[in-house]
Amino acid sequence: MQSISKTRIQGLKSHMRGIKKTGSVEEYLTKLRNVAKSLAALDYPVSDDDYVQAIIEGLTKEYHGFTASVMAKFGSFSTTEAKSFLQAYDEMIHQTKNLGQPLPVANLTQQYFQPIQRGGGRRGRGGRFNRGGRNSWQNN
Asked: How far apart are CA 26 and CA 107, in angstroms?
């Protein structure tokens, strides 16, 4: 019986890592939650870190901003926080699609970070306060 449980646990863990978001966020989270419940029923609860990792791994490219944010704070997100953040991010994606605008994250990057213009000053090395090198970026 114990070997059957171990095999079942490994199968469920593999299945959880393979779940991809193909429908709504709610459907996606429900699929993950069902697998997590099945694992818990086998006395193998899923840790927050493993659950958050499973959420991240199944997302599409349009959730890159969410993934980057979670990875930057990995280990400090609970499962509940990650789910709430994902639902809010999904709502933001749908709102910006309806308005026909790029995601605010991309907008922020385009608006505030511009390459430093080289040239001017003495011998083409930049002005008095321009100390940037080849790939310098400045926050305007």
From this structure: 27
| pTM strictly above 0.85 | no
SS3 label, residue 28: helix
Rounded-to-integer distance, Cα 57 and Cα 21, Å: 9
Q: Give the percent of the chain with pLDDT over 90.
A: 39
pLDDT by residue (tens digit) across 39-51?
Answer: 999 999 999 889 9
Q: Are 31 and 19 in contact (CB under 8 A)?
A: yes
Half-sphere exposure of residue 85: CA atoms within 13 angstroms, side-chain side: 19
Which long-range contacts link 86-90 to residues 24+ away (Cβ below 8 Å)?
Answer: 86/25, 86/29, 86/55, 86/59, 87/25, 87/26, 87/29, 89/63, 89/65, 90/24, 90/25, 90/63
Report whether 86 contacts 48 (CB < 8 A): no
Scan for tokens 């990875």, then name that residue. 71
Q: List, as one string, the DSSP characters of 82-126.
A: HHHHHHHHHHHHHHHHHHT---HHHHHHHHHEEEPPP--BGGGSB
53 and 33 in contact (C-beta within 8 Å)?
no
